[in-house]
Design goal:
This protein is about 80% helix and about 0% strand. The protein contains 16 helices and no strands. The longest helix has 20 residues, at about 80-100.
Length: about 300
């Protein structure tokens, strides 16, 4: 691999997992073009997946679909390309979940698991995705089973910081589904600490969001508001639009009675974020997104 392509991929990966996701989009687009031009298929597929991650993390879900769907739909014979096809399908499943399309997410994660074969990293992403899909479908038994399988893969892998952070997110989600807010808050706090020590600010913001929601459910409203402010501010600084809107929406509702000015500003920011997401979606998806009950309620206020 030539030095320029190596640098472009490294820049994109840093942006995806350790910085502002949008900063990785242009370098990764160049990496895809460069790798294809040089006939370096493995590097091209890696760049495509990372590009999809950056687009999705920025809230550009429609663009992420355009980039990732051809890779996820492929059935390559070599192991490395199958790995990235699996990761692409799992990333598309995450997009589907963020849009509230949990059954679609499950189908995509099942495809990701089939493509993963024996690749541990890809199997983990698919299994954890299936656990998150089950949470959205309110199936705690299926969530527990998939979560246990994912946790087994992560055991003994201290270098898997991203996987371990995400594992704690989904553990928090399952705990919330089972109405165990204290347990959820503990898992979310663990995710925040690990993300901070791993230099992953977007993951910190998402952990803070889960922590804040857990505190709301547990009745610790003052601490919840402080935590959600941190989540929203950090997400905004990173351009992580998918985290901005729920953090701002929950915070706005939470402080409405005690700080109407902050509530109004926070809800306004949440509305801007949901419309940004809609603007990048295909028409059918945008209509469904804007009609989603929680999004429609936010926009109706």
């Amino acid at each position: 691999m030539d030095d320029d392509l190596t640098d472009l991929l490294a820049t994109g990966e840093r942006a995806a997992f350790h910085g502002r996701p949008a900063a990785g989009i242009a370098p990764l687009q160049r990496a895809v073009e460069s790798a294809h031009a040089a006939g370096q298929d493995a590097e091209a597929t890696a760049a495509v997946w990372l590009l999809g991650v950056c687009l999705a993390a920025s809230g550009r879900y429609g663009s992420a679909m355009v980039v990732l769907e051809p890779l996820a739909d492929a059935a390559p014979s070599d192991a490395e390309r199958r790995l990235f096809s699996s990761l692409a399908a799992a990333t598309l499943a995450s997009v589907a979940r963020q849009l509230g399309r949990h059954a679609e997410g499950r189908r995509l994660d099942e495809r990701a698991l089939d493509l993963a074969a024996d690749a541990a990293e890809a199997r983990f992403d698919a299994l954890l995705g299936l656990a998150a899909d089950a949470v959205g479908l309110e199936d705690p038994t299926a969530a527990d089973a998939a979560l246990a399988d994912a946790a087994t893969l992560a055991d003994g892998r201290p270098d898997w910081w991203r996987q371990r952070v995400r594992l704690d997110w989904v553990r928090a989600e399952v705990a919330l589904l089972r109405d165990r807010p204290e347990e959820a808050a503990s898992w979310a706090a663990s995710a925040v600490v690990l993300a901070e020590t791993s230099g992953a600010p977007r993951h910190v913001a998402k952990g803070l969001l889960f922590h804040g929601v857990s505190l709301v459910q547990g009745g610790d409203l003052d601490e919840a508001a402080a935590t959600l402010r941190r989540a929203a501010t950090l997400a905004e600084s990173l351009g992580a639009v998918p985290l901005v809107w729920p953090a701002r929406a929950v915070l706005g509702a939470l402080v409405a009675a005690i700080n109407p000015a902050e509530s109004s500003a926070s809800l306004a920011a949440a509305r801007v974020a949901v419309r940004q997401i809609a603007d990048d979606l295909p028409v059918r998806y945008a209509e469904d997104w804007l009609a989603r009950p929680d999004v429609a309620a936010l926009l109706a206020d």
